[in-house]
């Protein structure tokens, strides 16, 4: 009896799907403490090393010998944007770091009420640490090697010069000077020469953008169904927090707007990179809640829909609890060509 071609294609596709699911799915060991340390010890070591590099670089004298004008020939101040007083941070550095870790971590733990997965807690928390620590080291090295003037630079520099002594500096018409004319505290001067990029902004966007991506993946905010509006608002709430933390630095005159923008871009870059480093996807709603394998991961993640049967999201809608997820357009794993 001749089997119809359409039935034959369906049978071959089904057989191929089963074979790929069985061939490439890694066998996970029971994650004992010994296996955990053996698997992740180098990641934690690198985090510590990057943390030390960031702390040490933040304490070093800035590399560039920046030149700056103070007065024009007529006695007018050249750059009044650098004459603001040195004031206290609205959000201190220690509080910024604490919020950067604590806010996303609270959401990670709240998701475990429904998910109850140590693998997810570990993947999400380590990804959060990667984003914060890597972003911090990245921006601190830029500050040390490039830097820039903070809005309160001239206030802490306290230059020993007046309009009558203009013309004794460097550059055109002797209008430019370096930090050798400063009489203020050396530590404050070093700090005031390390404005770009903003560390607060980097930490805020690294952690809170990461938090939004995690919430989207677990609650399926942008998925195959229309969720309740509060989920949409919740997705953007951490982003509002990041903007408020970053923008506050223009109020207390610790950073220029372009320092804030640069830090925000760096933080966002590390948030996306860290999330994708830990999870199977950033935006693909079928897989973005599933941690990538690290233990016995020779074959990697095979991107088959049967993973949804054992990898729960925080949503009960859209098919995550009844196995009815379907492939998206142009999805090769769900509609394999013959």
Automatic annotation (TrEMBL):
Q: Which GO terms describe its cellular component?
A: membrane
* Primary residence: membrane
Answer whether the UniProt record assigns the keyword Protease to this protein. Answer: no
Q: Does the keyword Zinc apply?
A: no
The entry's keywords: Membrane, Transmembrane, Transmembrane helix
Report how it sits in the membrane.
Answer: Multi-pass membrane protein
Q: Mind telling me which CDD domains this protein's record contains?
A: PAP2_containing_1_like (cd03390)
One GO biological process this protein is involved in is:
phospholipid dephosphorylation
Residues passing through the membrane, by range:
35-55, 90-111, 123-146, 199-217, 229-251, 257-277
**Which Gene3D superfamilies is this protein grouped with?**
Phosphatidic acid phosphatase type 2/haloperoxidase
Any idea where this protein resides?
Membrane
* Superkingdom in the source lineage: Eukaryota
Domain Phosphatidic acid phosphatase type 2/haloperoxidase, chain residue ranges per copy: 125-275
What InterPro entries does its record include?
A: PAP-like (IPR043216), PAP2/HPO (IPR000326), PAP2/HPO_sf (IPR036938)
Q: PANTHER family recorded for this chain?
A: LIPID PHOSPHATE PHOSPHATASE (PTHR10165), PHOSPHATIDIC ACID PHOSPHATASE BETA (PTHR10165:SF84)
As for family, the record states: Belongs to the PA-phosphatase related phosphoesterase family.
Supply the name of the protein. Answer: Phosphatidic acid phosphatase type 2/haloperoxidase domain-containing protein
């Amino acid at each position: 009896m001749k089997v119809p071609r359409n039935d034959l294609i369906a049978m071959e596709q089904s057989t191929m799907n089963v074979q790929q699911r069985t061939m490439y799915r890694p066998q996970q060991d029971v994650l004992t403490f010994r296996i955990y340390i053996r698997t992740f010890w180098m990641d934690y070591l690198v985090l510590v090393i990057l943390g030390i590099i960031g702390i040490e670089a933040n304490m070093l004298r800035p590399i560039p010998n920046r030149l700056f004008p103070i007065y024009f020939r007529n006695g007018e101040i050249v750059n009044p944007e650098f004459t603001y007083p040195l004031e206290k941070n609205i959000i201190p550095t220690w509080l910024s770091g604490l919020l950067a870790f604590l806010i996303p971590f609270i959401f990670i733990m709240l998701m475990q009420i429904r998910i109850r997965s140590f693998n997810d807690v570990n993947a999400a928390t380590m990804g959060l640490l990667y984003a914060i620590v890597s972003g911090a080291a990245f921006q601190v090295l830029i500050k040390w090697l490039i830097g820039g003037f903070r809005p309160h630079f001239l206030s802490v520099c306290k230059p020993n010069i007046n309009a009558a002594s203009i013309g004794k500096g460097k550059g055109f018409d002797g209008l430019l000077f370096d930090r050798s004319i400063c009489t203020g505290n050396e530590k404050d001067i070093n700090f005031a020469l390390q404005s770009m990029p903003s560390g607060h902004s980097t930490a805020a966007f690294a952690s809170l953008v990461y938090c939004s991506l995690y919430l989207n993946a677990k609650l399926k905010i942008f998925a195959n169904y229309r969720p309740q509006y509060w989920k949409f608002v919740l997705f953007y709430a951490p982003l509002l927090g990041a903007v408020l933390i970053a923008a506050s630095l223009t109020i207390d005159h610790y950073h220029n707007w372009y320092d804030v923008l640069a830090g925000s871009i760096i933080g966002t870059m590390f948030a996306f990179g860290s999330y994708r480093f830990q999870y199977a996807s950033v935006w693909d709603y079928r897989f973005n809640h599933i941690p990538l394998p690290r233990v016995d991961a020779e074959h990697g993640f095979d991107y088959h829909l049967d993973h949804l049967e054992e990898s729960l999201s925080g949503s009960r809608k859209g098919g995550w609890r009844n196995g009815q997820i379907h492939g998206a357009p142009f999805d090769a794993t769900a509609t394999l060509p013959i």
